[in-house]
Write a structure and sequence with these properties.
single chain; alpha+beta; 4-stranded mixed beta sheet; 9 helices; elongated
């Protein structure tokens, strides 16, 4: 079971990273949530158990695990004329109209191997499967969705102001950590940080997440302004906001 659990977890993380890359969302940019969908109850239980790992790997605040993807995508279906035409002949037009009216639940059931008796309006019916349909999946607004190996993952891509601020703060930390290495500082060395931001949102991010930045970079102070005696000074791009950062002991 452990092997299957780790495989499911890795699949979920892989899907999330793929979606982040697709939407150009850096892994350091926190997101509100990821929704995992699996029809298999055992897989859902395993994903629930490893939700903390998935949350950390994908940098999302919340993981939701559910059975249906109806809240994530709109399913619609059209008749596969190549598959149904030879079987139905002149009844094809009636069948196509009926298939276009199939509900999300009916289409989902067909996707998972079910069949459906399609009424043709003259007292006859024909059993259809997923192979008889052309299924379209349209993502609902605010989410991006991918499916593989029986797992669907949706990322909530809507960035609140607070998430944007936290993303800038995480970028700030990353840049300072690189500067520490380039300056040859020891891991335990305390520093003072000064910064000059072109955009007010950077100052807002530093104000909101100052404790986090200080703890991660071992900064005893973070001050807006210049520092002529800095060990290291660098012009950095913090998620599109150019900022001059100076590091001193």
């Amino acid at each position: 079971r452990l092997e299957k659990q780790m495989e499911s977890t890795m699949n979920a993380v892989s899907l999330g990273r793929f979606l982040r890359t697709q939407r150009n969302l850096k892994i350091r940019q926190p997101l509100a949530k990821a929704i995992l969908v699996a029809a298999d109850p055992e897989v859902r239980a395993m994903l629930t158990e490893t939700a903390d790992i998935i949350s950390e790997e994908l940098n999302v605040k919340q993981i939701l695990v559910q059975e249906s993807d109806s809240s994530l995508v709109d399913l619609s279906a059209k008749a596969n004329f190549k598959a149904l035409g030879p079987k139905l002949g002149p009844k094809m037009k009636t069948a196509a109209a009926a298939i276009a009216k199939l509900t999300h639940a009916q289409i989902s059931d067909l996707e998972h191997g079910g069949s459906f008796d399609l009424e043709l309006g003259d007292g006859t019916a024909i059993a259809v499967t997923a192979a008889d349909l052309s299924i379209n999946r349209a993502e609902k607004p605010g989410v991006t969705v991918a499916t593989e190996h029986g797992i669907t993952l949706a990322l909530d891509t809507e960035l609140t102001h607070e998430l944007i601020l936290e993303g800038i703060a995480r970028e700030f930390v990353s840049k300072v950590q690189n500067m520490r290495k380039e300056a040859g500082l020891e891991v335990s060395d305390r520093i003072t940080l000064r910064y000059q931001a072109q955009d007010a949102i950077v100052q807002e991010a530093v104000a909101a997440f100052g404790d986090y930045i200080s703890n991660e970079t071992l900064a005893t102070a973070i001050i807006s302004g210049e520092d002529a005696s800095a060990l290291k000074t660098s012009e950095e791009d913090l998620n599109g906001h150019m900022t001059k950062i100076a590091l001193a002991k």
